[in-house]
Amino acid sequence: MDQEFKTHVETKVADSTPPPERGAAAMQLKDVSVSFHGRTAVRDCTFDITKNRVTSLIGPSGSGKTTLLRALNRLHDLTPGAKVSGQILLEGTDIYRGDITVTELRTRVGMVFQRPNPFPTMSIYENAISGLRFNGVKKKSILDEAAESSLKSAALWDSVQNRLKVAASNLSGGEQQRLCIARALAMDPEVLLMDEPTSALDPIATLKIEELMTELKKRVTVIIVTHNMQQAARISDDCAFLLMGEDRAGELIEFDTTQKIFNNPIDPRTLDYTLGRFG
Amino acid sequence: MSIIIPPDFGTHEEVVPEFNSGTPSRSWYHYLLIAASIVFAAVSVGFVGTILWNSLPEWSHHTGTLLGGSGWQAPLGPFGGLAMIVGTLETSVIALVVAVIIGLGTSISIVFLVPRRFRNVIATLVELLAAVPSIVYGLWGFLVLAPWMLNTVDPFLNRLPFAREVFGNSSQEFGTSLLLAAIVLSVMILPTFVAISREVISVVPQDLIEASLSLGATKWQVIREVVLPTAKIGLVGATFLALARATGETVAVALVAGGVANTQFHLLYPGTSIASWIATEFGEAQGNEIAALMALGVLLMIVNFGLSLISRGLVSRQRKVLAIV
Amino acid sequence: MSDITELEKPVETGHQMRDEIRQISDRVRGRRQLRSRIMVTLCATALSVTAVPLFLLLYQLFRRGLPVILHAGFFTQLPQTPSLITPNATGGVSNAILGSLVLTLYAAIMAIPVGVLVGVYLAESDSKLAASLRVIAQTMAGAPSILMGLFAFSFVVRDLHVGFSAIAGSFALAVLMLPVIVISSEIAVRGVPNTLREAGLALGAKPHKVSLKIVLPAAVTGIVTGIILAISRAIGETAPVLLVIGGGYINSWKPLDPVSALPLSIYENAKSEWPSLRTEVWGIALVLVVFVFVLSLSARIWASRKQQAR
Questions:
Q1: Using CB atoms, which residue from B210, B215, B322 is nearest to A130?
Q2: pTM for the full model?
Q3: What is the separation of C-alpha C224 from the centre of its chain, rounded to a whole number of angstroms?
C-alpha cells in the first residue's frame, strides 16, 4: 500500500469513485459510547475494523481515543461508574452482551500499554508465556514454542534467546515494550490493541516497533491509538479521527483509509488536524 | 497519620540543605535542634544501657540457666528463662499465623473488593482496633473469652484425636491457657499487619493489574500471580513487624496465659511469656531476681529490635522493586 | 488516474497453535473462574472476621460497663475495698482518673518539646546523625513498653532515689511517647511543600527564620495530630507504669507521690475475688476506650479537615 504523503492540492478524488473492497471485519463498532458516572467521554462511534490491517485512532488529547480503545477489551469493567453503550462485535459476537465471557474475550483481544509493564517478578520467558499460564496451559512444549514464536514476532528472540531466565527488568525500555508485545502475541489473539505504545520510548526504539507492525498485521489485526499523526501516516492502513466536542465528549469525525484521511479528507476538521493546525 | 506508625513509605522529598550548606552563621535555632537531638540520643542510649547494665550480673554467671533452665526460683535463683522463651514462641507464632492469614484476606478485600466510598470507614475501623489499649483486650480475654474457652472450646479440642499431645487435658480453673493468649494476641496484631500489608498491596502499579487482566486472568489470578508476588518483600516485612509486636505484648498475655512458669508445649496448659513474666514478677522482686528479670528484658529487646530492623529493611527493599516498574 | 489502490488482502500467517491453546483454555476456564469466586469470597469473609472482635468487644464494654459508670460516685469517689458486709462497696476511681491525668501531663511536658524539635531536625537535615536518629526513633517506637518501665525503675525510682512516684511513671511514658512524636513531627514537617520554603528563601530570609516563621506554622496540624495520638497511646499503657507508680489510693498532684492510673486499676482488679470489683473494671475499661477512641477519631477528623482546607 502506497504510503506517500501527498498534499490535498495535488490529488483530488472524484466523488463517484466506488469505495474500496474491504476484507472481513475483525471488530465492528455500532453507536458505541462510553460514559463515567453519567458524563459522556466518547460518543456514537460507528466503524468497522478490517482484518489484518492496522487501524489507528488519532486525534488531539482528550478526544476519547484511549477510552474507546479500552472499551474493546472491556477494561472499563474495572472502573466503577463506567458505562459502555452501543454494540461492539468481535467476529459477529457482541462482546458485552453476547455469548462470550470477559476472560475469553481478552484471550482473543490482546493489549499493549503506553508504558512498558513487564511483570517485575518474572523472567523474560515467564513474562512471554504469562498469558498462556493464566489460561491454564501447562505443557512445556506448547509454552516453549509459544515463547519462541512470540518473541520472534516481536523481533526480540535474537537478543534474548540466551538469557530467557533473566529478570525482565534488565531489558531496556524498547526491549521491555517488545516483550510486552510478545506477551500479548503469545496468546495468538485475533486483535491487538495498542495504546500509544511508543510514546514512552526513544526514537530508535520507536522505529523498531513501527517496523514490527507491518509484519504483525499478517498475524493479527492491529488497532493503535497514537497522538503522533506522522506515526499514524507511516504505519496505519485505516484511520479513525476523533475530536472532543463542545460538551467535552469525544466523537468520531471521520473514518477512512489513511491515504484518504491524510490526502483528501472529507471533514475540514480532519484536514486542519493533519496539517498540524491544532492538537 | 494513625496510631499505627507504618515503616517509611514515602519518598523523601529533596531536602533543602539547611544544615549542609556550610553557612558560617549557626543560629540559636540550629543549636536548639542539635541539643534536643542529643537529649533524644542520650535517652535512647540510656534506655538500652540501663537495662543491659542491670542484667550483667545474671548474664555473666548464669547465661545457660537464663536461656535453657526450666525453673524460676525466687528470691535467690536459679532463674531459668526457658519457660518464658517457649511460651513467647508458641503464643507469638500461632498468633502470627492466624493474623497473617486473616489479615492478608482483609487487606486484599480492602484494596480490591471494597467500593471506594467505604474504604475510609474500614480504615477507621482498623485504626480503632489498633487504638484499643492492650489491657482492655486482656480484660476481655480474661473475663469473656476464658470462660467461653473453658466451657465450649477446651472440651471440644480435647476430644480431637491428637489432643493429648498438642493440647494436653487442661483442668485450668479459669480457662486461661497459651492457646487463649495466642488468640488474643492474634486479634491485637491483626491491625498492625493489615495496615502495612494494605499499604504495600495498594502501591502495586495499576498498570500491572490491567496488563494481567488483559491477558485473560481472573481476579484471583491477578492477585495471586501478580500483585502478591510483586508485594512479597513488603508483606514479609509486615509479618516481621507483627511478630515484633506479638513478642512485646505484656499485660494482655499476663491476664490470659495463666502465669505459670512451666516449660511445656501443651496449648491448653497455662504458660507465660517473657514480657508478661517480667510484669508479674517484678513487683515482689529483690536484688538477684531483679537482675534476672532485667536479663529477660535484654532478651526481649534483642528479639524485638532485631525483628523491627529486619522488617524496615525489607520494606525499603520493597520500595526499590516498585521503582523499577 | 485513480488514487485509490485496491486494498490488499494479505495472507494470514498460520495459526497452528491457536486452536490447541484455545481448546485448553476453554476447558479450564470454568474451573478458574469458580476458584476465583471462591477465593474472593474467602477474602471478603476474612474482612468480616476482622471486624467481629471489635464489635464483640464494644458490645461487652457497653453492656457491662455502662451501668458501672452511671453509678453515682464512680468518677468522684475514692476506691474502697468491699467486705463481707458490704460486698458492693467499691467506691469510685477518682484516684485513677486523676492519676492518669497527672501522669500524662508530666509526660507530655517532658516529651513534646524534645520530640517536636528532633522531628523538625530530622525533616530538615541530611546528616548521618539525622539518619541514625531516624532509625533509633523507629526502633524505639516499636519497643515493648514493659522495657520503659524497667528503665524508669532503674533510673528514676532507684538511682535517683525518687521512689515509686508519679514522676517515675511520667518518665516511662515520656520515653514511650518521645519516638512517636519524633516520627510524626518529621512526617508533618516533610509534608510541607518545598515550594513554601523556597519562596521564603527566595525573598532573602535566613534559613532558620524560614523554618520558624513559614514551615513550622504550616506543619502545626500534623504535629498536633501526632501529639494527640501519642497521648492517646500513653494513657492506655499499663506496662510502663505498672512497675513504678506505686498505685496510690489518694488523689494527688504531687510528682513525688505514688499515684494510680486507669489501666493499672483495671489490671489490679481484673483478677479480684470480689465480683463487684470484677464488674467495676468494665466501667473503667469503658472510660478508657471511649477516651482513646475520641482522641483517635478527633485527630483523624482534624487532620483531614485541615488537609481539605489547603
A1: B215
A2: 0.87
A3: 13
- Does A251 map to a domain? yes
Cβ of C118 and B40 within 8 Å? yes
> Bridge partners of B113?
none
Q: In what order do the strands lie in the sheet with A25-36?
A: A93-94, A82-90, A25-36, A39-50, A250-257, A238-244, A54-58, A221-225, A191-195, A109-112
| The predicted structure's pLDDT at residue B252 | 93
Q: Determine contact: C275 vs chain B, CB below 8 A.
A: no
Of B40, B133, B308, the CB nearest to C133: B40
**Where are the alpha helices (H) located in A27-154, listed in sequence order?**
65-71, 102-108, 124-128, 130-134, 140-153
Identify whether the C-beta of residue A23 lies closer than 8 Å to the C-beta of residue A217.
no
**If contacts are CB pairs under 8 Å, which of residues 1-40 in chain C contact chain B?**
25, 32-33, 35-36, 39-40
CB-closest option in B35, B221, B275 to C144 = B275
Residue A249 within a domain: yes
In whole angstroms, give the CA distance from residue C134 to residue C132.
5
Chains that touch B (3 or more CB pairs under 8 A): A, C
Which chain C residues in 104-163 lie under 8 Å from chain B, judged by CB atoms? Answer: 113-115, 117-118, 120-121, 123-127, 129-130, 133-151, 153-155
pLDDT digits (tens, 9 = 90+) for A102-142: 999 999 999 999 999 999 999 999 999 999 999 999 999 99
Q: Using CB atoms and an 8 Å cut-off, which of residues 233-252 of chain B contact chain C? A: 241, 244-245, 247-251
Domain membership of residue C7 (yes or no) is no
Query: In terms of Cα–Cα distance, which of A122, C140, C189, C164 is closest to B48?
Result: C140
Number of separate domains in chain C: 1
Neighbours of chain C (3+ CB pairs under 8 A): A, B
Q: How many residues does chain C have?
A: 310
Look at chain A and report how many structural domains it folds into: 1
Q: Which helix (H) or strand (E) holds A168?
A: none
C12 interfacial to chain A (CB closer than 8 Å): yes
Asked if the Cβ–Cβ distance from A136 to C22 is below 8 Å, we say no
Work out the angle between the directed axes of helices C275-309 and C262-270 (0-180°, nearest 10). Answer: 150
Q: Quick check: C237 and C145 in contact, CB under 8 A?
A: yes
From B18, B27, B105, residue closest to C42, measured CB to CB: B105
Q: Do B133 and C47 touch (CB under 8 A)?
A: no
CATH number for C206: 1.10.3720.10
C39: in domain? no
pLDDT digits (tens, 9 = 90+) for B142-176: 999 988 888 888 778 777 777 777 777 665 667 78
pLDDT, residue A16, reads: 36
The kind and range of the H/E element at A221 are: strand A221-225
Q: Length of chain A in residues, anyone?
A: 279
Model pLDDT, residue B315: 86
Residue A84's domain comprises 25-116+191-274
In C125-165, where does DSSP find H-type helix?
Answer: 128-141, 145-152
Strands A238-244 and A82-90: unpaired
| B129 within 8 A of C54, measured Cβ to Cβ | yes
In the block, residue with C-alpha cell 504531687: C254
Please tell me the predicted confidence (pLDDT) of residue B186. 95
Look up the CATH number of the domain holding residue A46: 3.40.50.300
Per DSSP, helices labelled H in C203-274 are 207-210, 216-236, 239-242, 262-270
- Boundaries of every domain in chain B: 28-324
Q: How many degrees, rounded to 5, is the angle at CA A166 between CA A164 and CA A172?
A: 95
- C139 CB within 8 Å of a chain A CB: no
Q: C152 to chain B: nearest residue by CA?
A: B47
Residue range B129-154: mean pLDDT, rounded: 89
Q: Does B28-324 carry CATH code 1.10.3720.10?
A: yes
8 Å CB contact of A218 and C5: no
ipTM entry: 0.88
Q: Of B216, B230, B322, which is closest to A135 when you measure between CB atoms?
A: B216
